[in-house]
Structure formats: C-alpha cells, structure tokens
Amino acid sequence: MVTEALRLAYAQQIADTAKLRSDAVRRAFAVVPREKFLGPGPWSILSWTDASGTPGYTSTPDADPAHLYHDIVVAIDASRQLNNGQPSFLAFCVDSLDLKAGERVVHIGCGVGYYTAIIAEVIGSKGYVLGIEIDPKLAMCARDNLRYITQAKIEQADSSRLEPADADAILVNAGVTEIKHGWLKALKDGGRMLVPITAQLATTPGVELGRGQILKLVRRRNGFSARFISGVAIYHCVGARDARRDRALEAKFSSGGADTVRSLRIDPHEATGGCWFHADTFCLSTSEAVSS
C-alpha cells in the first residue's frame, strides 16, 4: 500500500541521492503516483548481474505498488528492454534544467509519461509540457496516463520537427550522436537543453545502449554555451544517431578533456585546436560561445 509517508520518504531519497537544488522537483516526486504509469504488478526490476553488461530483471514478490517507491529502474516492456528510468538520474536532469513555474518544456523520448508528469508538476498549471515519443504503443500509453494533467500533451512524432523558438527547456531522454538543429531552433533566448551524447557500448551487441555524458546547452545571443555535467548510460535515440561517429566519440571520451567544452558551434568551419569534437553538422568547442 502506498501511503503519504511512503511517497514523502521516496521523494526525500531521490532528493538526497540526486542532490537536488529545487524543492519543486522534490515535491513533484512526492505527488506524482508512479504506479499509475507502470501498469499492474508484479513488476520487473532492472539488475545488472550479467558479466557481459547485458541487463537482466528480477520480479517484485507481489503487486503491492509500494515496491515502486525506491530509486529503481522498472521495466515498461522487459522483452524489448524498455524501462522507466532511474528516478534519481531523471530528477538530476530535471533539476539541471532550472525550470520555473509557467515555462514551456519539451520532453523528447517521454516513454509512458511518468517523468513528463514530474515536469508538469514542477512548472505548474500555467506551464506547458509537450512529451514526444516515436514508439506508437508508448505514445498511446503516455497519452492515457497524462489525461488528468491539463498542462501536458503527448505527440507520437519525429522529435526533430519542433516549433522554432518556442521552448524554455528541452530534455532529450535518449542517447544521440547527432544534435538535431530543429531542437536548437526550438529554444528561446536563454533556453536550456539537456542531451546525452553517447557511443555504442561495445560490450552489448544487439542492445541499443550507449555510454557517454550529458551535455547542457544554453542558448545565448552569441551562440550556445555548452558544458558536460554528468556521465550517463542510456538507450539510443531513434533518428539521432550516426554509427560512423560511435568510435570517434568513444575515443574522445576515453582520451579525456570533456570538461574543457564550453560551446556548441553549428556554423561551417575547419577543425582547429579549439574543436574538442568536430563533426560535419556540429562542433563541441573549448572556446566560449561564438556567433552562429
């Protein structure tokens, strides 16, 4: 049984683990009912027990939703290795977006909508969150789950097609090798975006899983400031990957220097010593933001 005390303890556990700065994010985890988004139990809980790095699952002993109120990854569809992500990690991401009441947010790769609901709670009834999910089944599920939240909308769509300069914040909840220009154009001045830049994990053949770092972008008048803020292992973002970049990204992360990145450039230019990672459509630079 889920009691108010259990919800509050869960929220505090997440806040402590993620080292949250925002009390609004902590309160959201205490309010949004996780069981509403994960269907009837028993549930499959992710465990990394395989020496190869392949994820495995263990089942909860029964269908008591109290089992969900821990910092655990719960399967949405274990046969497809689709999961409702780690609460403390997503809490850290939402906290890092510096959301304010009334803002407009886009959540790319929203899954069943649990963390979209968390965002909706943080920005309040005067805000707006658009959850985008490419998987039709997940999008339909998220739409049903979020019907009770008036400031949330779900679209089953290609996430690269967003309205220009409409978003205060964007959370990309899947790993990319490509930073879509449509996402950048959707950010208002001062808008923030979190996007996981990842390379395919070589230890998991057949598993669409990557490892890398979370990049935080802020749109400035003279370009995009950029900082890597956390390591990450996360599933791939459909339509935002180029397999040719996997080895190059893996090599760059392995060689270090990610902490020197200061800006994102999308203007055409030749690679220089200031280019930490130079690709044909974007560049992560050690120089401060420049005009693009």
Describe this structure in words.
By secondary structure, the protein is of the alpha/beta class. Helices cover 25% and strands 29% of the residues. It has helices spanning 4-18, 23-31, 35-38, 87-96, 114-123, 136-145, 181-186, 246-255, and strands at 44-47, 56-59, 74-77, 82-84, 104-108, 128-133, 152-156, 167-172, 187-200, 209-220, 223-235, 263-265, 275-278, 283-285. The strands form 3 sheets. A 10-stranded mixed beta sheet has the order 7-6-5-8-9-10-11-12-14-13. It has a two-stranded antiparallel ribbon with strand order 1-2. The protein starts with a helix and ends in a 7-residue tail after the last strand. The model has no long low-confidence stretch (mean pLDDT 92).
Keywords:
292 residues, 8 helices, 10-stranded mixed sheet, two-stranded antiparallel ribbon, 14 strands, alpha/beta
Q: What topology does this entry show?
A:
Layout: H1 4-18, H2 23-31, H3 35-38, E1 44-47, E2 56-59, E3 74-77, E4 82-84, H4 87-96, E5 104-108, H5 114-123, E6 128-133, H6 136-145, E7 152-156, E8 167-172, H7 181-186, E9 187-200, E10 209-220, E11 223-235, H8 246-255, E12 263-265, E13 275-278, E14 283-285
Parallel strand pairs: 5-6, 5-8, 6-7, 8-9
Antiparallel strand pairs: 1-2, 3-4, 9-10, 10-11, 11-12, 12-14, 13-14
Helix pairs in contact: 1-2, 1-4, 2-5
